[in-house]
Amino acid sequence: xxxxxxxxxxxxxxxxxxxxxxxxxxxxxxxxxxxxxxxxxxxxxxxxxxxxxxxxxxxxxxxxxxxxxxxxxxxxxxxxxxxxxxxxxxxxxxxxxxxxxxxxxxxxxxxxxxxxxxxxxxxxxxxxxxxxxxxxxxxxxxxxxxxxxxxxxxxxxxxxxxxxxxxxxxxxxxxxxxxxxxxxxxxxxxxxxxxxxxx
Length: 199
Hints:
Order of helices and strands: HHHHHHHHH
Distance between the termini: 18 Å
Shape: globular
Radius of gyration: 17 Å
Structural class: mainly alpha
Largest sheet: none
Oligomer: single chain
Number of domains: 1
Number of helices: 9
Helix content: 55-70%
């Protein structure tokens, strides 16, 4: 499987279309709110059928209001927050740094708890690209661990194989964590998995 990872398009960030478009447009000087509005409209059209299914399946009508602008805005701010932490890669694992990383972890947890699953693929590819391209130790992100486990358990064997091979690649690239302070890994309670034993 490592050959499959080696043959992925470079950079891997190209696969993260939503984040790449938001990032590039804002870096070019476009207004963030306008970018979010444009991307949310495009995403709304792409997921019209999915959104209608959610409405039909929901007993309390919680999906009737468009959720896309809020979702993309949350995703954008989350990625900016993670990107800021990348600047601390070479810093020693001080208590301040550990607290900062744990804050990012909590935000990732809240991202999942809010039920935003349409962007799970984009988020995992983005964080994986940071881990590989920037050398950030994935053990710092217990939210990242939860995300990978969730996608492995819910997206079928093709996605499982891809993620497992990619994580093997990460283990070859990333040196062991020099921090002596463990960060607790929160295992998810996966209720959406149709076959929990297929992990």
